[in-house]
Amino acid sequence: MGSVSRLALAALIGFGALSFVGVAPADAKKQEPTGPRLSKDERATIAALDAAITARNYPAAGQALTAARSVATGADAKWYLANLELKLGRETNNIAMQSSAINALLASGRVPESELSNLYYGRGSIAAASGQRDRAEADYAKALELSNRPDVRASGQPVPESWYRRALSIATVKKLSPQALKFSRDLVTAYPTAENWRDAILLYRDYATPDAGTTLDALRLMRMSHALAGERDYLEAAQSFSNAGLHGESRSLFEEAVAAKMVDPLKPTYKEAIAAASKGAPAAKARLASLRTAAASAPAGGPSLDAADQSLSFGDYAGAIELYRSALQKGGVDADTANTRLGIALALAGRKPEAETAFRAVTGARAQLATLWLVWLGQHA
């Protein structure tokens, strides 16, 4: 718990006997008595519990807790008891005791709003550890929601990055894939570092097990978010585009990697791959005109989609946009693939509103990736 509840509890125990503010009968309708209302037995058992915890006499604290539970019937007594129970549960690593105390505190309606997020986060961690997926997701979401509210943050600071990472770590370890994907998006939304983007996209690829085409669009997002880390990432990405016949994109990736000194062009493996991309790109570009001609006369959208992919590969965003729209209009293509790539082309062309519309039209297996592109779009385009 935070400072408010600790100070209140210290005041209760430290003074031994509390003085209550009395009011005259004539004033009773105007003013309620202030200060905690505890019976003699409630005060004595709570004081005994606090003393045992302070002395780290945990067997005695356990007995005192049982005794306090039997006499703590008032709202104030239950509030102080729950604070001490949570403290004892943490110090003894008693998960059941922590859970009981957190539930009591949340049910009390007395927790300061600045501390609510901590309690929901703690309860979510307990739920995740015990496999209660729905409970964990709901509590983590509530914790992040509360922490991100300006009226709840006492310091005016954003949610710490460690909170997102902790929630993501627990969800990943417990294989809570929907929660993990959500927390990874929250993480890059709040902290859009290259490292966080890399983690989020790789996590998406692990959980979504995308096909080759979707992998290409995930690699494009890694590139745009500067999440490609080192020569291996660049080599695998460039080879993926080469394998798809998108040699223009493969070549430009290698050029980018060499310029950033992420790849040594003299190493045999990279020298060979760079040469292959450099050779394939001119031939692919030479075929682009014929692809566009075929797309214009084709009744179905397949040729338009192929021509659009090549146009995107060579950075001709205006041409790609026109062809992706043609493919969607003619039909016979996977609409989610076409809309994803239409959104990418629009985003890279700086046409943000149109890109948002395209990404929001993506459904099914590609929806998670489209959402990540929307996060990037909001940050960069």
Number of strands: 0
Fraction of residues in β-strands = under 5%
The coarse overall form would be: elongated
How far the N terminus sits from the C terminus, by CA atoms, comes to 42 Å
CATH class designation of the domain at 192-381? Mainly Alpha
Low-confidence stretches: 1-34
Radius of gyration: 30 Å
**CATH architecture group name of the domain at 192-381:** Alpha Horseshoe
Order of helices and strands: HHHHHHHHHHHHHHHHHHH
Please give the count of helices.
Answer: 19
Structural class: mainly alpha
Largest sheet: none
Q: Roughly how much helix do the residues carry, as a percent range?
A: over 70%
CATH topology of the domain at 192-381: Serine Threonine Protein Phosphatase 5, Tetratricopeptide repeat
Mean pLDDT: 85
How would you describe this structure to a colleague?
This protein is an all-alpha fold. It has a domain at about 190-380: Serine Threonine Protein Phosphatase 5, Tetratricopeptide repeat. It has 19 helices and no strands. It has helices at about 5-15, 40-55, 60-70, 75-90, 95-110, 115-130, 135-145, 160-175, 175-190, 195-210, 210-225, 230-245, 245-260, 270-295, 300-315, 315-330, 335-350, 350-360, 365-380. The longest helix is centred in the last third of the chain and has 30 residues, at about 270-295. About 40% of the residues are buried.
